[in-house]
Amino acid sequence: MPVRAILLDLDNTLLMEDAATFAALRHASEGAGSAAEAVAAAAAATAAALFHDADVFGYAHRMGIWWGEALWGDFAGDGEEIAALRAFVPGFRHAVWRRALRGVDGDALVDEVAAAFRDIRRALRPIDPEAEATLADVGRDRRLALVTNGAPDVQREKLATTTLAAHFAAIVISVELGIGKPDPRIFRAALDAIGVGPEAAVMVGDSLERDIAGARRAGLRAVWLDRGSDGTMEGAIVPDARIGTLGELRSTLTALERADPFPQPA
Fold first, then answer.
1. Among the listed residues 212, 228, 188, 227, the one whose alpha carbon sits nearest the alpha carbon of residue 263
2. pLDDT for 44-63, tens place per residue?
3. 231 — pLDDT class (breaks 50, 70, 90)
4. 219 and 192 in contact (C-beta within 8 Å)?
5. CA angle, corner 80, sides to 76 and 86, nearest 5?
6. How far apart are CA 235 and CA 97, in angstroms?
7. What is the rounded distance in angstroms from the CA atom of residue 216 to the CA atom of residue 203?
8. What is the C-alpha to C-alpha distance for residues 16 and 136, in angstroms, rounded to an integer?
9. Would you put residue 233 in left (φ > 0), alpha (ψ -120 to 50) or beta?
10. I need a labelling partner for 13 at 20 to 30 A (CA). Which of 53, 64, 128, 147 fits?
């Protein structure tokens, strides 16, 4: 079956979200001197725990917003849930850095380090080195759509100083739609936006649960970008193909087009 369209994930697929977050944590913590490494580790652990226990976590998790973004994003937009998240983050950031700096005489550094993290993370544009060339290549003969979980202003800010957005005929963001991956409806919305049926489309992403399982339930074939896992699959989530780098996508699409039979939605 010919592949006429490709849906792609953003974070940790085209942009290295996790790497950028942890790099920003390390740089922001340098103000703690010899304790910098311990402070960065404590900030990550504290942020994960506080975010998970927060009242806003249920909404954030459904929309695919994680603690790394809560440490710097503005979360602009209407609606009670995004407004609640926006109101939550100032206190969250202060609490994270206050706890992380505890024991290093860091009370005076809390606001300074919190602001440093925000500015450093915003300045980073951690594009996968093969992303631009891959999109240009596969986009020559196929329609492309970006399907990303997250807050619209945060995701668009990540894209703002890259050239990646120009490759997409549609950009679908979970908070704008009110539906996050792995819900099949977000994939179908992207397909509707570019006028292609699921049988002629492939999803590419790094998350087995959100990208691969969700796409398969929507009737798409799915390519897992495996960034160094131990090779095991999560239960019954099995992609149609696995790649280790974006540069392998062209040849993998060719192989999928030759493969038979086409998978049926779960």
1. 212
2. 999 999 999 999 999 999 99
3. low
4. no
5. 40
6. 37
7. 9
8. 19
9. beta
10. 53
Residue 173 CA to chain centroid, in angstroms? 11
Q: Report whether 172 contacts 190 (CB < 8 A).
A: yes
- Residue 203: strand, helix, or coil: strand
Q: How far apart are CA 234 and CA 253, in angstroms?
A: 23
Lowest mean pLDDT among 28-37, 182-191, 240-249: 28-37
**Mean pLDDT computed over 185-212:** 97
Q: Phi/psi of residue 41, each to 5°?
A: -65, -40
Q: Calculate mean pLDDT across residues 168-177.
A: 98
Q: Which CA distances in Å does 1 have to 4, 194, 199, 202?
A: 9, 18, 8, 11
φ/ψ of 238, rounded to 5, equals -125, 120
- Identify the helix (H) or strand (E) that includes residue 204: strand 201-205
Amino acid 61 reads H
The number of residues making up the chain comes to 266
Question: Can you read off the two tokens belonging to residue 60?
Answer: 């954030």
Stretch 199-222: mean pLDDT:
97
Tokens standing for 54? 């927060």
Helix (H, G, I), strand (E, B) or coil at 56: coil
pTM listed for this prediction: 0.92
52/58 Cα distance (integer angstroms): 8
Distance CA(141)–CA(79), nearest Å, equals 39
Tokens coding 34? 């010899």
DSSP at 190: H
State mean pLDDT over 224-237: 75
Q: Are strands 201-205 and 170-173 parallel, antiparallel or unpaired?
A: unpaired
